[in-house]
Design brief:
Helix 7 (about 235-245) packs antiparallel against helix 13 (about 330-370). Helix 6 links the parallel strand 5 (about 190-195) and strand 6. A 6-stranded mixed beta sheet has the order 3-2-1-4-5-6, sandwiched between helices. It has 14 helices and 6 strands. Helix content is about 45%, strand content about 10%. The chain is an alpha/beta fold. The chain starts with 7 loop residues before the first helix and ends in a 13-residue tail after the last helix. The longest helix is centred in the C-terminal third of the chain and has 39 residues, at about 330-370. The chain has helices at about 10-20, 65-80, 115-125, 135-145, 180-185, 200-215, 235-245, 255-275, 275-285, 295, 300-305, 325, 330-370, 375-390, and strands spanning about 50-60, 90-95, 105-110, 155-165, 190-195, 220.
Length: about 400
């Protein structure tokens, strides 16, 4: 499918981004949330239902296949969650865990609507360590419950997915054991689901007990994750459009405000460099949706803030603008921002249209191969659909693949 050229606006913004940001490596680091602009006044955001989801993932040596599956499927899962009505605000957190004596016991990425940041950390995970069979599951669950900035909204759907293939160490005397942690999770309204990789009977017994105490569900998948592996003829074009959509950002602010925004740009460049075309295609669909706006843009974007009326472009200090804009006249700045608003709207429309074609193609391919029942995709989606319904969220019949 040929996509029409977006004109000079996108070229200028892409060039501006290259001029403004330093050279980027392929690896990225988790970053803090962007600092709000001051004295710009931001109105109260529209009230939307909240989904807070934390993946607690065993990253020891036997989990190579599942870790790679997680890297491939996180955007499909996010897109599936975004398909609810009313449109939710989705925040994702991550706890990677191993065991005492390994390179780390846990690595924690806090809940954030900037899913690129979470994904950037996930892309760095590799499977290593472990040694004996049990792992530090107790510590991982403790950190998931205690170290995440869970929503205080009692109507939020708050959920943990514990993913692993080995039981918890119950012999560490200074551990907080999972029944105590799960009791606190219940008081906070957090549901805990378990996904067992493989068939170890000890793990099955413990995972089923954790799910039962956590008021969640249990299911098992094969050691590699059991997800639907699907590439389509639309993926490469959607990946290209995704990069072009990222290039319409026009971040501005003080040096302190710009630091996390540069890091978000780093995350985006890392995704385009390292993620598969299929994963980038699902990211494009998510970012073009109403639920994906927070991840697609984030805070401190001139295009968004001007369009929303949060800032008067004429009053923005030139020193806080992207370098190529600082020497422009007021009219030139206004025209450039307007062109990028139009380019962004056009790109989102193209992504949405192409994503519908991709979804239709994927549905036919999956049906032709016997369906996706009992796949990781289907099981996670079915769990979310059932549990989120209690919070008033309504999902369509099938997940995104």
């Amino acid at each position: 499918m040929k996509i029409p050229l977006l004109g000079t606006a996108l070229f200028i913004v892409t060039a501006a981004a290259v001029a403004f940001y330093p050279a980027r490596g392929s690896m990225v680091r988790p970053v803090a949330q962007p600092v709000a602009h001051d004295p710009i006044e931001h109105p109260q955001p529209e009230q939307r239902p909240v989904i807070d989801v934390v993946f607690v993932l065993d990253t020891t040596g036997s989990m190579t296949g599942m870790i790679e599956t997680a890297k491939e499927k996180i955007w499909s899962i996010a897109s599936s969650m975004a398909s609810a009505q009313p449109t939710p605000l989705i925040r994702v957190g991550l706890v990677g865990y191993r065991d005492r004596g390994d390179a780390y016991v846990t690595r924690v990425v806090d809940l954030s609507s900037d899913i690129d940041t979470t994904y950037a950390t996930l892309m760095q995970f590799t499977a290593a360590g472990g040694g004996d069979t049990p792992e530090s599951v107790n510590q991982a669950l403790y950190d998931a419950v205690h170290r995440m900035s869970w929503s205080a909204d009692p109507n939020a759907y708050k959920v943990i997915f514990l993913v692993g293939d080995a039981p918890p160490h119950m012999d560490y005397q200074d551990d907080v054991k999972y029944p105590q942690t799960l009791a606190l999770a219940a008081r906070k309204g957090i549901v805990v689901n378990t996904i067992q990789c493989g068939t170890d009977p000890q793990t099955r017994q413990q995972w089923q007990q954790i799910a039962s105490i956590g008021h969640g569900g249990y299911f098992d998948v094969d050691q590699a994750g059991g997800a639907v592996a699907l590439a389509t003829p639309y993926d490469a074009e959607l990946a290209k459009l995704s990069a072009q959509l990222d290039a319409t950002r026009m971040y501005y602010g003080t040096a302190e405000e710009m630091a996390p925004l540069r890091a978000k740009e780093e995350a985006s460049f890392g995704i385009h460099a390292n993620a598969s075309a299929a994963s980038q295609a699902r990211r494009a669909a998510f970012n073009a949706s109403a639920a994906g706006e927070a991840n697609a843009v984030g805070a401190g974007d001139l295009v968004t803030d001007v369009a929303a009326g949060r800032v008067d472009l004429a009053t923005v200090a030139p020193s806080t603008l992207p370098a190529p804009m600082q020497a422009m006249s007021a009219d030139e700045r206004k025209a450039l921002v307007g062109k990028n608003q139009a380019a962004r709207a056009d790109l989102k429309a193209q992504i949405q249209a192409l994503s519908k074609e991709r979804d239709a193609f994927a549905a036919k391919q999956i049906a032709a191969n016997g369906g996706a029942k009992d796949s990781l995709d289907d099981r996670i989606y079915g769990t979310v659909r059932e549990q989120a319904a209690k919070k008033g969220l309504v999902y369509p019949d099938a997940p995104k693949y």
